[in-house]
Each structure stands twice: as C-alpha cells, then as structure tokens.
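Preliminary data (for renewal application), fe (iii) ion complex.
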Amino acid sequence: MLNIGCHLSAAKGFLNMGKETTEINGNTFQFFTRNPRGSQAKEIDLNDIESFQKYANEYDFLPPLAHAPYTLNAAGADQKTREFAEMVFTDDLKRLAYLPGVMYNFHPGSHVGQGTVQGIAHISTILNRVIRPDQNNIILLETMSGKGSEIGSRFEELKAIIDSVNHADKLGVCLDTCHVFAAGYDIVHQLDNVIETFDKIIGLNRLKAIHLNDSLMPFNSHKDRHAPIGYGEIGLKALTAVINHPALRSLPFYLETPHEKLNEYAEEIRLLKDLYQS
Ligand code: FE
Ligand code: FE
Ligand code: ZN
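Predicted structure:
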C-alpha cells in the first residue's frame, strides 16, 4: 500500500487534518509545528489530540510528520539566531511528546559564510542540547537543494551531523526529491545509483520519509522551487520509479507543492496510487 499524504494547515487542529487526509484518500500528513516563519506556537489542545489519535487508529493512519519552521537557522553566525533555533526545537519537542511516533523534520541550516564545518558544529551543539535519550520523536534532517550556503545538500554533510550527535538513534533523514535533484543527485536517470550512494554514506536505515515533489528548476540548479507532480523537470516517470523503488516503496510520502484546493492533492494521490505497483 502506498503511504501518502500532503502538507496541511494546522490552524484547525489535528482532528481536522485527519479528516482532510481521509477526504483526499491519504493515510498520513505533514504540518508545521507553528507559523512557518517561526512565531508563537498555539496552545496544545489535549482534547483535539485525543480525538485525533482515536480517528487515526480507526482509519489506520501512519503518524503524521511535523515540520519545524523553515526560517530557523541552527547553523547561524550570531548567537541570537542559534538560541532562537534551540528555543523552538526545545518547545516543539515538548509539544510533540504528546504525539509519540510523530517525527520532527527540520532544515539543517545555512552557514552564512562561516563554512560548512563550523555550521555543522553549531547544528550538532544544538541537537546535543535538545535531544533527550528517552524521547519518542525521531528528528529528521531534510536533504536540501544547496541554495546559498545551505548545509545538507550533500549526503556527506548529513552524515557528519549524525556522527557528531550523542543520541544518534534519535536521528533520521527525510529525502526531498525536488531538493536532491536540484542538489545534483540525478534521480531521473540514476535513481539506483543515488539510493546506493545514500546507503553507502548515510545508511538506508536512516531514511524515514520522502517529500515527493517535482522541481520547477533544472538538475543541479541549487534552486528550491517545487512543481506539481509531473509538471516539473523530474517528471512523472521518474517519480513513479521513486514510489515503486524497493528501498523506498514502504516509506511515507508527503506532497508539498502548494495547491489552491485540497482537491488538487486528491488528484495527485489518485494518480500516484494508480501508478503504484501492488
Ligand atoms: Fe522542508
Ligand atoms: Fe521538503
Ligand atoms: Zn523545498
């Protein structure tokens, strides 16, 4: 079975996102833990969480995926920026403790001229401060396109972060198809090779989720612009190979190209389910 869902607005709560997911025939979803620009998070609503958990059991959902605000920069040059990232991580993880099994995805960050080594050192310092050995939420590093001074566009960089964290059993990777393609991993012509490379450098056991996006920008462009499924430079044929690949096919897939209407995600999910080999 294809495990799939899309990015949804958390404004109306978890039960609402659950119902929207059913409406589009998905069985998981992604949400921002707070406003994507990083401001104040909503109060935790335990009633909503409880009704969602019941609903998710009933409909056989996989745990949703939480996404940290993308403006955070754990690799930032000034201390204030890094302190803010640490504060948000700490607070988000405290909230996610109410949703065991939910994974927490974040963008590793940008070194803004300090160099990759220094940037990675900042990221691991923060991760070592916020990860608790008994937490039930795995933290995912997202593969990035490498725009500007972004860290995480090379598998080696993600591996270096994982290796410098004490409780690395709490870490995994979320592979974004648009980002890796823009970063120069040719999933269109060399999918097997890319997956083999990932396995050699990071280990496929770390791969926990896929952001399934097409790319508006060409291969190796280091630009991050998502396109609807089948309308970008990756194309439907390559994305079909991704969802059916033996090493990937049982992972949860998340669509994150913004659409006007929920219905458009429903269409993409219908199409992908059609193309998924049972
Ligand atoms: Fe992301
Ligand atoms: Fe993504
Ligand atoms: Zn992106």
